[in-house]
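Lab notebook, bench 4. Still working through the backlog of constructs that have no structural model yet. Next entry is a single chain of 100 residues. Request: give me the structure tokens for it.
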Amino acid sequence: MSGKIKKRVVSKRHLNWEYGVSIEGIRKDLDALEKEGFTDIEINYNYSHDNVDITVESYMHRFETDEEYQNRMNKDKVRAEARLAHEKGLYEELRKKFEQ
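Model written out:
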């Protein structure tokens, strides 16, 4: 196994379906999204003070690219090194405190 993880990628395409759209318009949007590889639509709403806020997003799941994987590995390495340095510092403080 390569160690790559699946990512949720959200389309930047704005789906203006909130206040009514024709079926033909939805089909065109869906066709364009499918050509770009998107597979899912998520519709969310939020009620606030008698107002409804609706968001429509399309997304796909895909494995991260080689570049994304390498960037994640580099960040993980930096975090691990920082954590180790912090832990070593704590160890030295405690060692000095209890060796007295």
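Notes after review: The mean pLDDT is 89. The first strand starts at residue 6 and ends at 10. Flag for follow-up if needed.
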